[in-house]
Amino acid sequence: MGDTNLDSTGEPAGNALTDQMKDASIKGEEEDIVNPWNVQSTSATGVDYDKLIKRFGSSKIDDLLLQRIEKVIRKPIHHMLKRGIFFSHRDMHHILDLVEQGKPFFLYTGRGPSSDAMHLGHLLPFIITKWLQDAFDVPAVIQLTDDEKFLWKDLKLEQVHQLSYENAKDIIACGLDINKTFIFSNLDYIGSSREFYANMKRIEKCVTFNQVKGIFGFGDSDCIGKISFPAIQAAPCFSNSFPHIFGSRTDIPALIPCGIDQDPYFRMTRDVAPRINYQKPALLHSIFFPALQGAQTKMSSSDPNSSIFLTDTPKQIKTKINKHAFSGGQSTVEEHRALGGNCDIDIAYQYLRYFMADDLRLEEIRKQYSSGEMLTGELKKILVDTIQPIIANHQTKRTQLDKETVMSFMTPRPLKFRF
Amino acid sequence: MGDTNLDSTGEPAGNALTDQMKDASIKGEEEDIVNPWNVQSTSATGVDYDKLIKRFGSSKIDDLLLQRIEKVIRKPIHHMLKRGIFFSHRDMHHILDLVEQGKPFFLYTGRGPSSDAMHLGHLLPFIITKWLQDAFDVPAVIQLTDDEKFLWKDLKLEQVHQLSYENAKDIIACGLDINKTFIFSNLDYIGSSREFYANMKRIEKCVTFNQVKGIFGFGDSDCIGKISFPAIQAAPCFSNSFPHIFGSRTDIPALIPCGIDQDPYFRMTRDVAPRINYQKPALLHSIFFPALQGAQTKMSSSDPNSSIFLTDTPKQIKTKINKHAFSGGQSTVEEHRALGGNCDIDIAYQYLRYFMADDLRLEEIRKQYSSGEMLTGELKKILVDTIQPIIANHQTKRTQLDKETVMSFMTPRPLKFRF
């Protein structure tokens, strides 16, 4: 995460992009850089996501899709989907087709445990995974790529392995169902699953160095562990990698909620899948969670003021938001009253879009702030009041977790769900 | 094996050689090609091994070393060591130092199970491993690189996995001690050993694509599985890859008897070992087992007449030797009586050097054949009479093996030996 400017899933893990979009990604027309290791935007509103959809060849999550999801699950859609925080998808209609036919799918997401300092943005894939798990009543597998972090960072195996365990607690605290969720450290699980290892080899046989060079930007001086890593992030897409859950079935596709920066891994996987008679994974892509200082600045674990961490105290949260959250307001109260604030670049407002579920209240805030009726200090106070209980609640849940529960989540075992 | 001209261990597995010797290996001064995939010689006497020792930077197994081994084990040295069939080594003196100090080491060898048609030459590493195991009273680990064969050949995982099991029977039939030997299929063991997987990652982190390109000749269009495979052949060099045998100890070095063509893997491993605080493996290198048609011709599983297979009948053995074994004799009896035969290129004589343990008798045969006293037909008959019982005995032992015994050898478990 240290070298990531904006962060979605907390898993920068490859210097990515497919051949056709490589130039554009490095310094494209819109000058946004988006790959698993590096996300950079020159615009205060952040990355141009419509252009990204075109470049990546994914589909926009439109009203039609949202309505169809609501119809299938028979309850209101999550606000992060409604508000375009999850904005792009691949094959979500196919997943809904399966559900309508009474056929199964499963959720897959993950995290690279390079630090125990997880921040708010790191929770997004797990928050939406928990919601999808409840809404669709499906199992979820969550990969902790400690092996990847060992290869990429100056960390020992023992360190990344311990981080997996610490991060698992934060993930569990998001409310995932112990009867439907398997969280695994690669260092633990790969060394205990012939089936997972077999799928790694099947994938490795289908992907050349040329391809990972094109997709992830790997070079000749990268270590061979990095070069073959993409197969390890691809393997959980295939249901028979988890025989304790799915037996030897290969007909159950994965739905992957993740940051758009992780898409290169799964474009690769979708290319490989039909060649080995497996199902292509479907995806839900999220936009990038902005740093406190604004969408074009750097959010980093080494800068504690760049984000709100899951370990922050109420006071720290208040101070950070008041001192560091980039404001879209005007420079004087008079000007602000006259011209209004700019919600598109105001970080306090943007954070509320992620964490305030109440649509009506959020819209009210938007109107008041845009019109100048609400001042920056007032808006920031609302954010403080919203975030403090979320973090406090998270910390309570995390503290209450006993080792036994964490180990249960991390033990290969059958999961309960309807097929 | 299909693309190997001469074969030692039956494990061509990389297009090898280190940077400094790359040119020489591809078309060097002596025009011998020696790497894990391809061994070719233009000379009827085969590869120039003295030059190879220089190029590879290994040491010759000289009389001093042989005498020291005999002194340490207090019994006669194996004829394959005495006769220079194992001709080169790395750090064998260090292994003897350890033995003299009462410190442990272990044996490591292996095979790539690409075919169930194993031939005589494939047995060499296992014959010497069995002898070393008895002589030094040490454990042996034997890697079946079924994952490698899957990546390199047009074979399915299920096929190579089954071949592992079939090949294990031939290896066990060489007489390895069930209490001191662990034979493992990579597809089985890696997916059941966190420790082995952890060592794979430690090695992968230390080796770049540039390095495997230089050592093994990998290219951009090779699949990522091939590129990272060398770490998998390196991992068994480290004792803590086998916690059921060695616990977490990392101070026990491996001694690897193998064909000289496999050396590139272990040069790489010896380079990595000190960087991760592990012991460098020691090696004993064998020359290449010649094809029946002569040392410069191709021995191939697809040509049943190029070698004697472990499944051949006594009649097939007799016919093959009589019809196909390249003769160093003269074209007429009269000439032969006058000029004598050339033992250096005579395949019947060369095979006897591998398989006739009796030094005095072999020397007698050499004298008689060289002087012309013994005719080619007579020499061939001696070879037939030597090989037929070896193969018959092997077949009997293999047939007598029950599934339970094979599974015992292949089950991770403690091994009995003195520390």
Automatic annotation (TrEMBL), chains A, B:
Query: Example GO molecular function term?
Result: ATP binding
Quick check: keyword Nucleotide-binding in the entry? yes
Q: Where in the cell is it found?
A: Cytoplasm
Q: Single GO cellular component annotation?
A: cytoplasm
Annotated EC: 6.1.1.2
* GO terms (BP aspect): tryptophanyl-tRNA aminoacylation
Q: Does the keyword Zinc apply?
A: no
Q: Which UniProt keywords apply?
A: Aminoacyl-tRNA synthetase, ATP-binding, Cytoplasm, Ligase, Nucleotide-binding, Protein biosynthesis
Q: Which domain of life is it from?
A: Eukaryota
Q: Which CDD domains match?
A: TrpRS_core
Q: Name one Pfam family in it.
A: tRNA-synt_1b
How would you classify this enzyme at the top EC level?
ligase
Family statement: Belongs to the class-I aminoacyl-tRNA synthetase family.
Q: Which NCBIfam families match?
A: trpS (TIGR00233)
Q: What is this protein called?
A: Tryptophan--tRNA ligase, cytoplasmic
